[in-house]
Design a protein that fits this description.
The complex is a heterodimer of chains A (877) and B (112).
Chain A (H helix, E strand, L loop, with lengths): L1 H14 L1 H25 L4 H12 L2 H11 L3 H19 L1 H29 L13 E6 L10 H10 L3 E16 L2 E10 L3 H5 L5 E2 L15 E4 L1 H8 L9 E4 L2 E8 L15 E4 L3 H4 L15 E6 L4 H18 L1 H4 L3 E6 L7 H37 L1 H9 L4 H36 L16 H27 L13 H38 L9 E7 L7 H17 L3 E7 L11 E6 L10 E8 L3 H5 L3 E4 L13 E5 H8 L8 E3 L4 E8 L14 E5 L7 E8 L3 H15 L6 E5 H44 L1 H9 L4 H34 L6 H27 L3 H6 L2
Parallel strand pairs in A: 3-8, 5-7, 14-19, 16-18
Antiparallel strand pairs in A: 1-9, 1-10, 2-3, 2-6, 2-9, 4-7, 5-8, 6-7, 11-20, 11-21, 12-20, 13-14, 13-17, 15-18, 16-19, 17-18
Helix pairs in contact in A: 2-3, 2-4, 5-15, 6-13, 6-15, 6-16, 7-11, 13-16, 13-17, 13-22, 15-16, 17-22, 17-24, 17-25, 22-25, 24-25
Chain B lengths: L1 H24 L2 E2 H11 L8 H14 L2 E7 L5 E7 L1 H26 L2
Antiparallel strand pairs in B: 1-3, 2-3
Helix pairs in contact in B: 1-2, 1-3, 1-4
The chains are: A alpha+beta (877), B alpha+beta (112).
Amino acid sequence: MRWLATTTFYLKSLFTKRKLEAQMAEEIRAHVELATEANVAAGMSPTDARHAALREFGNVASIQERTRDEHGWLWLEHLRRDLRQGWRMIRKTPGTSTVVVISLAIAIGVNAVVFSWMRGLVFRPLPGVPQASELLLVEPRSDSGSYPGASWPEYLDLQDRLTALEGLLAYRMVPLNFGLPGHEERTYAQLVSGNYFQTLGLRPALGRFFHPEESVQPGAAPVVVLSHDFWQNHFAGDAGVIGQEVRLNERPCTIIGIAPEGFRGTFLGLTYDLWLPATMAPVLLASADELERRDLRGYSLLARPRPGEAAAARVQLAGAMRDLAVAHPETNTGMQADLLPFWRAPRGAGRLLLGGLSALQGMMVLVLFVICANAANLLLARATSRRREIGVRLALGARPRQIFTQVLVESLLLGLLATIIGFALAWWGTDALRAVPLPSGFPFKIDTRLEWEGLAFTSALGLGCTLAFGLLPAVQAARIDAQLLVRVARGAAGQSRVHRLLVALEVALALLVLVTASLSMRSFLETRQSDPGFKVSGVLLGAFDLAGTGSDRTAGLQNMDELLRRLKASPGVTAAAIASWVPLDFHAMPAAGFKVDGRASGEGDMDRALSYAVTPGYFLVMGLPLVAGHDFAGLLAPDAQPQAIVNEEFARHYFGSAPALGHKLVGKKLAYEIVGVVRNSLYETFGEHVQPMVYLSYRDRYVSYGQIHVRVQDPAAKLAPNLGRMVREINPAITLYDVRTLSEHVDKNLFFRRIPARMFAFLGPLVLLLAAVGIYAVVAYAVAQRTAEIGIRLALGASGGQVAAGIVRENLRVVWLGLVPAWLLAVVVMLHMRGGVLNATVLLGVPALIVLMATVASWLPARRAAKVDPMIALRTE
Amino acid sequence: MGTEKEKSDLLQGTLDLLILKALQAEPMHGFGLAQRLKQMSAEVFQVEMGSLYPALVRLEKQGWIKGEWGVSDANRKARYYSVTAAGRKQFEEEKAQWSLLSGTINAMLKAT
């Protein structure tokens, strides 16, 4: 019941503020009068009696104030007053306030942007899917720890065994030619199990999804579901498309439904246009037996466990994989399986991005620390310059707690402003990212919208920062002793220690940020300029797929051979070839298993090396010289000994200094003779270690798809628009898609390094500037405090130069204090990060830059102080 | 400034108890209360107005005392405070607590 009385009291106070105020004044007046009367009764003169009564009562204003404190409405009143006062202070020192707000806003903004990217990847990897966080990937894991994916028969087995799952679905990505009358284009589709949409919990925007029986009989159900975007872009959202026939890889298919808006398919970071039953694979693609083969691990499996049965599913999965290993030793020996959250998908763009983004987020948090330290320093300097004002207020009866909250409210105001601007920046920043031209020919897209999580994150950051930089000045201000004010500038020693610590901290953080930023910039520039081993410029690429044109291996090889012959004869073309893979691609390069001369070198029964198929002339196009042996035999050369060409690293690894030519690589079906050794180049990514590599010939290892490589005389980009036409003129059945230059392709690989590099390029100088501002503010403040001392020294005959040099020296000592430990840390990090390689330019350049900047930042105020007239300086106190 | 605050903090609990005690007999105004407290303590306590008035507001806020305007013997307008029923109950509780506390501390101080 007490709370009721209290609440009533508060409410009454709130609404009768003026009345209470008058009542209090009246009560005090009555008190004094009663006391006066008592004194008069005791024999004093009326005047003396009144004075005595007032003296005895004490400081009326202060007592009123403290009585008022007990009324409930006071905190509100205080807040209003503190806010007004804070705003006044912010406007009175526009320079400091602007630096604090803008730097903080930028830091909060970039952190929020990076966070929104992370969130898009980690928290919302499956846009449009309800309860996506419940979904788990089922990933078969080989004994070497890699995740090769699942085969279709394996999927069917697991689906039967895992009863703890509400549903298990399978999918794999295929590029398909999508044909409307008079128009054909490349699209990206997912081949999916019949329960795909149902298990994901999706409802069609239009029409229907697959029936379970539509994914049983191979080729029985030529039906397709379109993505909402694709439907909008290609059919203008016409509801009449349901039931319409389209051609996919030249096969008729019926549109049965439209996926809901916002659903992009189930692959981290990518967007799909179409979904088809997996049982259409034998019809649409040349791989007629992929639904029976257990060694084709092309599928990803996604499970929705029944509520609370995730652990049971794990147990069932382990048991099922054990049984599969017994039943199918040739494909499943040593195979186990893991349940992984979707964002940890072992394949795809996400993994690449996530690593880079985590590093970036770490750096951005460091930047935020620098900026907070800087803000604390600036505010501390400002609060200290207000010691006199605060002292006066304390002497007039203000309590330390009031001073504390008031200074803190000021910081909160700054923080609030910064958070609002930072949020606006982040909003703009995520928009800007979406506007960045993305790698062409790749359905890459991340959901980066700032939603409430972003807002919450940004606000939390803003509040955290404000407390971080606002508490120190507030505590300092509240600790000021009014008594000390009479004495000259004492008590400053403790404060300058805090200042120095902050400067040292700021310098240390700035060094770390700058070192990392310049390393990241350098490695980005290095990779841009570094020689990948092959000649990047002057090569045009175009992808094609003969699957679905009805051509078998023989016809396919004939088509390719003719295409290459006539391309080479075209004007401006110096060389042409086909390869099944382009190095430095987004995805990991395929690998092949083999035994050298029939013997395995490791513990497994086969060795593995990166491998893809090429046509003769490929090394000429790529500018990769053969260091031994010769090129592959012609595509149409009679089947003889299958051939392989290895790189120098392969030869060194397996044969040392002995010649590699003539050795046999025994694969699952064929034995390849090594006929050539080619120079090493980069295969998967910039900065990789040299890897063993095996090239096979299309003749021996035929696939129906490939990338045409054409080396041209003119700048490659000029010819790019014509390549598709040239190919069509030679063979109308071949549709080229994703035509680009090799350098564009390579740039795509650099895409995810470019975003962090750009952020560092922008933030590095900013951090340096902020550290300079911080040091300048501290020195300027310290010098102002010591004006009298400087005046005395000048009066005693010290030269202005000596005084200034002394001040600079003193400050540089503080700078070194922060610099040295941070530098050592940077060396350790660099040794760890770059595999023991130290970068002298960065390790010497960055500290030199910081020392230079610190010297300038302390020299400017020091020189101004040294120019002071001693007489004026002495009179200031 | 800091030391004064500590002292009033220390006295706060006891001051509330003493005010409740003083008001048991009859309603009183602020000045009268101050005189009465001084008298009760045989002039040992000098109650500060800066503690007394906030304490009165605090007690009123809790609903333990009630303030009303009245007229003094000398025909002067003043605010009279009286103890409510809840205040009496609170007083008994606090008194019991205080006896326990002071008794215990005394016993401890006397122990050798």
